[in-house]
User: What shape does this take?
Amino acid sequence: MDATPRSKQDDPEVLLGALLRTAYRAFMDEFEPGMAAAGYADVRLTHTPVLQPLSVQPEGLRASELAAMAHMTKPSMGYLIDYLEQCGYVERLPDPTDGRAQLVRLTPRGWEMTRAGRQLIWQAEDRWAALVGQDQVEGLRQHLRTVLAALQHETRSDTQSKP
Assistant: This one.
């Protein structure tokens, strides 16, 4: 890697990672207060590595799959799952394809909570659209999809080329 300082990239105001992180924090500012107001005061942003994937996999996922998706250790993921299970948002069930494994899935309360969370996300999108215009928000969404698709393609290509 080139150790030469790059003045433009060294400026935290233009570092892409810093911009993405700051934008995400601004986007999610109202999430936890909004969840509390909706009756889910025990839900935090830190729970999204469990809740978001389960909201699109109704049959559930193994804890190891959730951990891999979130780039977390299995014990850390287990801690989140334990907490959410105690709160009544998720449940563990035997995996029908492997009797030794368990699936984690949302409970009816978990589904209700994710619907409330989605409403808050849509409100944040609407707020951004009011600030910069719907076209800008849709353009950002498309640019991010393009980058993510390219990264996914690159990852698949790298995996296929390894012996």
The longest strand covers residues 98-106. The longest helix spans residues 134-161.
